[in-house]
Structures are given as structure tokens and as C-alpha cells.
Amino acid sequence: MVALLTILQIVFSIIVVSLSTYGIITSDYQWNFLLIFFLGLLILILGMKEFQRGQKVYGWIYMGVFLFIEYVSIQTFF
Questions:
Q1: Is the pLDDT of residue 18 over 80?
Q2: DSSP SS3 for 30
Q3: Domain enclosing residue 6, as ranges
Q4: Tens digit of pLDDT for each residue in 35-49?
Q5: Which pick of 18, 41, 61, 62 has the fewest CB atoms within 10 Å?
């Protein structure tokens, strides 16, 4: 399970950095809702890793941030 979370963390990090770089270089921000969505998923993975490490407080903080980011992503999509 830890290996899967690490792989997902790397994949989501690459996606977030790629979309951010694309937006900065081209000044085209139409894909920002996807950037925010994948950033939320990255935060979710980080929260799950904190729960596995036994850091429950940080895990809950990450979960709260994840929920807020996903809410913002959905609001910007519609």
C-alpha cells in the first residue's frame, strides 16, 4: 500500500508541475480547474500517508485541505 501511495504521489506531482509550467509559459489558464483537482488529489495522498505514519492531526488537516480544494475545483469547473 505504501508503494502505491508513493507512486500516486509522484504521478500527481508530475501532473501538477506540468500543468503549472504550461500555464506559466503560455499564459493560458483554461486548465486551472484540472490543476486544482490534481493538487487536491495530491493533498489526499499526503494525508493518507500521514495517517499511516500515525500523525492523525496532520492527516485530518490534509483531509480538510483536500475537501476545500476539491470544492474550489468543482466551483471553478461549473
A1: yes
A2: coil
A3: 2-77
A4: 999 999 999 999 999
A5: 18
